[in-house]
Structure formats: C-alpha cells, structure tokens
Amino acid sequence: MNAFEMKHVNQTFGTGSAEVQVLHDVNFSAQPGTLSLIMGPSGSGKSTFLTIAGGLLTPTSGTVTVNGTDYHDRSKKERDALRLDEIGFILQTYHLLPYLTVADQLKLVTKVKPTGNLEPEALKQVLATLGIQDLLHKYPGELSGGQQQRVAIARALYPDPAIILADEPTAALDGERVKVVAQLLKTLAVQHQKAVVVVTHDARLVEAADQLYHMQDGVLTKAS
Amino acid sequence: MFLALKELKKEKLRSGLMIAMIVLISYLIFILTSLALGLARENTAAINQWGAQRIALNSTANTDLRQSFLTQQQVGKLSQKEALIGETSVVAKASGHKQLSATFIGLKSHQFIAQNLKLAGGRPVRHAYEVVADDSLKRAGYHLNSQLKLNDTAQKFTIVGFTKNAKLNISPIIYGQLTTWQSLRNMVNGPVGSAIVSKDSHYKTTQKGVKVYSKQQVINKLPGYTAQNMTFMLMIGFLMVISLIIIAVFLYILTMQKLPNYAVLRVQGIPSKVLVGATISQSVLLVLSGLAIGALLTAITAIIMPAAVPMAFDLTILGAVGVGLLIMALLGGLIPVRSVLNVDPISVIGG
C-alpha cells in the first residue's frame, strides 16, 4: 500500500483575472522504504505541493490520502494529530523555540505525544548521526545555522513518523553535512521503512533518491 | 505551563522587567486600597463601634449630623436599643500641647453607647467635667488625668479614660456627658441632642420633624466621605485598566515575536491549545509572581508605617484586589491568544 498518494490534484489561487493555477493534475505516490526527490525552480509549485501533502491546504480538486485515508475525511484537529503521529516535517525555516534547549525541543514533543516516539537508544543514534549529541543543553542562540537545522531534523524524526516531508533540508548545510543528511534520509527510508519525500533545489541529493520528479510550472513529471 | 516556565527561566531580564512593572502596579493598588480603607474606617469607626443600624436626625438637617438638633418632644421616650447623642466640633487646648481639632460626643451614661464603650484605659465618665478620649490623644501627649479646655470654656475637663477607634470624619472623638454638649453649644434650655442612634434595624419614629436614616445614608453624607471614596475607587479602577493594557501589550509583543516559531510547531502538529495554554500560563505566572512580591512589599510597609498614617490592611479586600488584577491579566492574555489561534502554518513552508 502507498503510504502517501495524490490523485489528480489541482490547486488554484485567486479568482477571475487574478486566478493562477499553481498545480496541474498532479499524481504522486510514495511507498514505505523509498526516498522521493522533487526538484524544480522557485515558483514551480513545490511548496504548494508540500503544503497539500502535509494536509495544511485543501486542494481545489483531487484527493490526497495518507495510509489509505483521505484528508477530506479528517477534521482540522484530526489532521493536526495525523501530522504529529504520521508526518515528520523538516522545514527550511526551522525556527526553533529560542528559550528551549535542544533536549527541551524534543521534550516538548513528549509532552504533546507521550508514546510512540523514538526509543532512547534510537534517538541517541539519530542525534549521533546528525552530530548534535553533545549539544543537548545548548539553546538555539548558541548554535550555528547548520546545527539548528540538524536539531530541527531531529525534532521532526523524534515522533517516529511513517512519512517524512522535507522542504530544502540541506539549505543551510555544507557539503559534508549534506552527505550525512542524505545518508540519514536514505537510512530512514530503507532501514526504517519510512516514505521520505524531499522538495529541493539541491542536486547533491539526487544520488540518494529512489524516485526523482521534476516540477515545472505546476506540472509534476517523473524523471526517467 | 512547560513552555511558559522555560521561557521565564531563559528570558530572565525580560520577565524580570515585566514582573517589576506588575509589582509596582500591584503595590500601588494595595497601598491605595489600604489608604482608602483606612480613611473610610477613620470616617466611620465610631458609628460602627456603636453598632448603629438606624439614625434619627432633624428632617431639615440634610442628613448631616452636625446640623441636626432634636428637642425633648422630638426625642420622646427611647427604648433600651436607642441612645441620644449630641455632636459638635471642638478644639482641645492644654498648656504644653498643640491645639487639637476633635469631635465632642455627648452621651447619657445609662444608654447603650455609653454602657458599651470599650475603654483602653481609665474609667467611664461620671461627672460633668470628665471626658473619655480617643487614644490618638495619647499620641498627642495626653494621658489619664490630663486636663484640657474645649473651645473657649472656662472650665477644664479631665481625661478619665481612653478608648480605641473613636473617630468620626477622621476627627478624634472626646466623649462626655450630654449636658456638657448642651453647654458647649450654649443651648442649655433648647435642643437636648443631635441624633437618636438605634441598634434596631427596624427603628421608626412618628415624631414630627424627625427623619430616620440608615447608617450608610448618614455615613455617605459625612463631609468629603463619598467624594474621597469615589476618588480612590477611580484611581484603583484606572490602575486595574492600566495593568490590563500593560500585560496585554507586553504579551502581544512577545507573542508576535514567537509566531514564526509557533507556525513551525503548528506544521508539526502541535495543537493550538498547547500554544494558547503557554500564552495564558505565562500571563498568570508573571502576574502571580508580581502580586506575591507586591503583597510582600505591602506587608513590609504595613509593619513600618507610623500609626498616624490612616491605613488599614484587610486581607479579604486585598485578596479581592489581587484576584481582580489576576482577572485583568487573564483578559490581557486573551488578546495575543487570538494571534496564536490565527497563526498560519503555511507561512513557514517554502522559506
């Protein structure tokens, strides 16, 4: 079964002469154990794709299903719960809460979702892979941009989601760290059977991808 | 609460400044309330101590004790629940002492006010030229057996006792006999008193030219009493509203700064109620901390304040003021809550 599926999704903003169609008949599916990469220039519709995929925006037409259930069948509250339980978002703008240490950023997740998160050993491994295991008592203001990005990745992975949606996850990272994050995403997909969907400009991630898509003017095409 | 506590811990200076402002406001409100209460008590202490429920005055006296005169016919026969009093302003003079403005209250020794007068020292009045004075006269240097003159009387009066809380319209009371009141007012053959004070809440009289008022009606007509209380109420009310605005503005600014962070948390599925709870908890924690310190400062002030300052500290009233401030803080905290509820998670996607 597909972990995540979009069928004939169209998205239009504005009305009348100001109407802009951002997505055109998008069909997409992601299976557990795969890393899908969606590449495209700015303004091609990648962010809108991600917004709809995360259930934050209802498409003008078409269906979006997560683990077999259509978003349409869920209330706003249920979509929040779904994102918390099933979808890990890794965002380009990580905006960590400035008054929480790295450990507290993770503790906040535990406060809201006490069970079903990564076991301590697995979390330790993720933190070590990201190279932030020694930063647990630091505040975001004491970290570099790259370190904050990695903390944001850890925060997204900690609830142990089935699907990971990443928006430019390597934007603030140097070459070496890009490789590490690409490897981590690949590992999550293959070893932990997650469906990983990455929206990016970063061609350095292509090597890790199982499926490669291009987005151009709202049209999604699968690369050969 | 988790987020609120963590933020207070990390942002010590910012939280400290906000708490400091709430401390100053709450301290000012507590002190003003105590002052208002103290002054109100000094206006009405004697009337309350008498246990008065109803007060009969001359119907043309405009509910003013000072302007009321009752004849023997108007007073009629009184039960044990009524007492006749004569009230007049006097200036007490004695060698070696400053002149002191006071209120002379003439009583009949067999009636309930004189009978129930609690003495802090000395004995009750037995003769015409004896008086029992409010114990504030002690602070003015008088003591038992001190002699003083009232107005321009040739005769000297001896202080035979002191009593506490004997204040009317902030003026200390000197209790004496009703006949003394008549001579002080030069009305030996005229009116026999100023008012009939009754302990009976159903007291009525059919005497012509006499009108019965409730205790509160008479108190409200004491010179300056209502205006003074209204002024204090207005000041306290304004301070409450100012505290609401300060808390609301501070929390609004703090919340606005956090909206991008909150948007990310919303994307990750953190429910709005967690973020709203953090905002409200933060306002409650800030105000409770400020109130606690404000209350401590008020307690210290109460200890070191000289007795001459008319302040009264009533825990129930101060507690109610504290609860009022807390409610204002909650209302102030609700304004930024709207922004938290309207945070758009989509705004943080796409960089």
TrEMBL record, chain A:
Residues 4-224 form the ABC transporter domain. Gene3D superfamilies: P-loop containing nucleotide triphosphate hydrolases (3.40.50.300). GO terms for cellular component: plasma membrane. GO terms for molecular function: ATP binding; ATP hydrolysis activity; transmembrane transporter activity. Keywords: ATP-binding, Cell membrane, Membrane, Nucleotide-binding, Transport. The complex is composed of two ATP-binding proteins (HrtA), two transmembrane proteins (HrtB) and a solute-binding protein. The keyword Membrane applies. This is Putative hemin import ATP-binding protein HrtA. Its main location: membrane. It is a peripheral membrane protein. InterPro entries: AAA+_ATPase, ABC_transporter-like_ATP-bd, ABC_transporter-like_CS, ABC_transpr_LolD-like, MacB-like_ATP-bd, P-loop_NTPase. It comes from the Bacteria. Belongs to the ABC transporter superfamily. HrtA family. Pfam families: ABC_tran (PF00005). It comes from Loigolactobacillus bifermentans DSM 20003.
From TrEMBL, chain B:
It comes from the Bacteria. It is found in: Cell membrane. The keyword Transferase does not apply. Belongs to the ABC-4 integral membrane protein family. HrtB subfamily. Keywords: Cell membrane, Membrane, Transmembrane, Transmembrane helix, Transport. GO terms for cellular component: plasma membrane. The keyword Transport applies. The chain crosses the membrane at residues 16-39, 232-254, 274-305, 317-337. Residues 234-345 form the ABC3 transporter permease C-terminal domain. Its main location: membrane. Part of the ABC transporter complex hrt involved in hemin import. Responsible for the translocation of the substrate across the membrane. It is a multi-pass membrane protein. It holds the Pfam family FtsX. The complex is composed of two ATP-binding proteins (HrtA), two transmembrane proteins (HrtB) and a solute-binding protein. This is Putative hemin transport system permease protein HrtB.
